[in-house]
Amino acid sequence: MVNENDVLNYKNKCEEIFNEIKKDMVGQEEVVMGSVIAMIAGGNVLLEGVPGVGKTRLVRVLGRVFDLPFSRIQF
After folding, report:
1. CB-based contacts of 25: which residues, under 8 Å, 6+ apart?
2. Rounded to an integer, what distance in angstroms lies between the CA atom of residue 44 and that of residue 25?
3. Structure pTM?
4. pLDDT tens string 1-29
């Protein structure tokens, strides 16, 4: 059963994740939040946009924060 301590620990961990991402990413709060939620939920994310909006940087930062390998696929 989940108790109040578990919820507070989860909240603190999520704040740590967002604070680490904010060290490298400026702006794009909706994209960052959606990407982190998808990562936590075990989902997938397709990042589309014009060059220079920080898609690769976001993926690189998420890999560092979640301790995952980084690789880039370009179409």
Report:
1. 32, 54, 57, 58, 61
2. 20
3. 0.80
4. 889 999 999 999 999 999 999 999 888 89
